[in-house]
Amino acid sequence: MKTKLRLATLLLGSLFAFVFAASAAPKTPKVVPVPVPSTAPLEPGVVPCGNLIYAGNRSSVCFADKFLTDAAKDTTLDVEKHFRAVRLDSDGLFDLPFCVFSGEETFTLTERERKNLRQYLLNGGFLLSSPSCSNEAWDKSLRKEIELALPEYKLTKIPMSHPVFSVLNKIETLKCKKGNVALLEGLEVNGRLVMIHSKEGLNDVGNAKGCCCCGGNEILTSAAVNVNILTYVLLY
Question: H helices within the chain, ranges in order?
Fold first, then answer.
């Protein structure tokens, strides 16, 4: 009886040690295939939208581009139906009036990327940013990089009375998957909205091809919100 008890105790101790080691082990970063920068020629009169490649080889496959098709269908805007992958440190960035910025985990931009980010937002470009899976580490890095690139401007809450929420679809609240209500944040330069950020998912992952992300605490009407943002940016 004592031998069996001792054996059971040893087995239980080994199990606890295994579980502790597994939980304490560092997480292996997800391997995200980096899109190849687009080289397709721009079409006159057609609005191109970018998906940023940044911090060397970071990007997102979990931000659905379906809202581009929805915007083209619901408005008179002639918009390319898919994102163009574009490097943040390239001159090609300045050919795109609208870009999405997303990903997971901590990142750090290069000095060239920060310089381009600043010039892009101060000279007519627009960024829509949101972390994949509502990733807190990415959100924290994004805020740090915006502060470094544009220290004189601050992200502030956008009230639901703002025209961005009624320019096409009437959006009265931003309810999230976990039941809470979100508010978007914006960056204004000389009265012009140059960036919208959401710490909760705006990625519309249900329509993102090749994405294994759960969406995190995603905003339920993310596709409609993104259509409004694109429409507002191109019309105002």
Answer: 2-24, 66-74, 111-122, 136-149, 222-235
With a CB cutoff of 8 Å and minimum separation 6, the contacts of 50 are 83, 84, 85, 86, 93, 96, 98, 99, 100
Q: Which of 89, 13, 80, 17 is nearest to 45 (CA)?
A: 80
Identify the DSSP state of 26: P
50 closest CA partner among 129, 155, 143, 122: 129
Q: DSSP characters for 142-162?
A: HHHHHHHH-TT---EEPPTTS
Say how many C-beta atoms besides its own lie within 10 A of residue 122's C-beta. Answer: 15
Per the domain annotation, does 27 fall within a domain? no
Give 173-202 pLDDT, tens digit per residue: 999 999 999 999 999 999 999 999 999 999
Residue 5 lies in a domain: no
Contact indicator for 102, 131 with CB cutoff of 8 Å: yes
Residue 18 lies in a domain: no
Q: How many residues does the chain have?
A: 236
Domain of residue 144 covers: 45-235
Q: How many domains are there within the chain?
A: 1
Q: Residue 148, exposed/middle/buried by CB under 10 A (0-12, 13-18, 19+)?
A: middle
Please, which residues bridge with residue 197 across strands? 129, 185
- Domain of residue 228, CATH code: 3.40.50.12140
pTM for the model: 0.85
